[in-house]
Amino acid sequence: MIRLRAGVDALVALDAARGGHDELQRTALAGAAETLEKQKLGACQRIRQRLFSVAADYMSMAAWSAIDAKRTDRARSLLDRTLYLAGMAKDSVAELDAWNLYSILAHHRGAYAEAVDSGHAALATAIARRDPFYASLAHARTALAHSNLGERQPAIRSLGCAWEVLGKASLDDPRPIWTAFYGPGELLALTAIVRDKIGEPAEAEAASHKALASIPEQFRRNRALATARLALTQLHQRDIDQACATASTVFDLMVGDPLPGRLRSLLGDYYRDLIILAPDAGVAREWGDRYRSEWSRA
């Protein structure tokens, strides 16, 4: 059991540094399969449930890797399996993890109403009702979904709830390693996205700067995403030179590894907005050249 848990932890660390990719997904699925084989041999119900819980964590990592790599068609079936395993394990944390990922997946599919519903499902889990840390994550995910629907007041309300309950959470309590990414830094990064989506780029830029000062260095992929979001907020304020300089640092942050699908897509969004707002700017053309070069390398 300890070895299997350690395998999950290693995948979480790999994801934090490099992001989702096919090798990570294959390793996670192999870990889930091995765990389920051992579950069949479990001596008692308690041991079998613990093994179901580990299998759910492996399956969740496979699903998340598919989402981060923008393989959304694959991710849905993996999440369905994750939720099933979480139910078999009677593991409320794994259940919340699945609903959190359902919300992210719906976001990337453009199914924003489904993303809201998934956020509410996460809030309804036993662990979210018991631990404000998890409730904050679910509120933040719901706020993001509302902002994508253009629902300003619900987005602000959910964001306020996320901050309020995070302030009540003990961040030092023992929790699964996958939760390590979430805290004030990540909530600031999500705040920046919400503020930019509802038409407040200056507030979004301020939140992005604070996020980058707070997100730990080992979360390299998350820092790269927050940097790309910072560039978008600067672009939306028509600060073209600064935005392009900021966006270029994303490539430096991820040097040595291919860009994960979500990050590539976000930079594509940046380039699209850049062309719309400053099609003739020299710095825009220079950034476009580097973007195409990095895209082909990745």
Average pLDDT number: 92
Distance between the termini: 36 Å
* Overall body shape: globular
Order of helices and strands: HHHHHHHHHHHHHHH
Main beta-sheet strand count, sense and barrel state: none
Kindly estimate the percentage of residues that lie in beta strands according to DSSP: under 5%
Helical run tally: 15
Q: Helix share of residues?
A: over 70%
Q: Structural class from helices and strands? A: mainly alpha
Radius of gyration: 19 Å
- What is the multimeric organization of the chains shown? single chain
Number of strands: 0
User: Residue ranges: pLDDT <50 for 5 or more in a row?
Assistant: none
How would you explain this protein's 3D organization?
- With 298 residues, the protein is an all-alpha fold.
- Among the domains are: 1-90, no CATH class; 217-298.
- Helix content is 79%, strand content 0%.
- The longest helix is centred in the N-terminal third of the chain and has 24 residues, at 45-68.
- The model has no long low-confidence stretch (mean pLDDT 92).
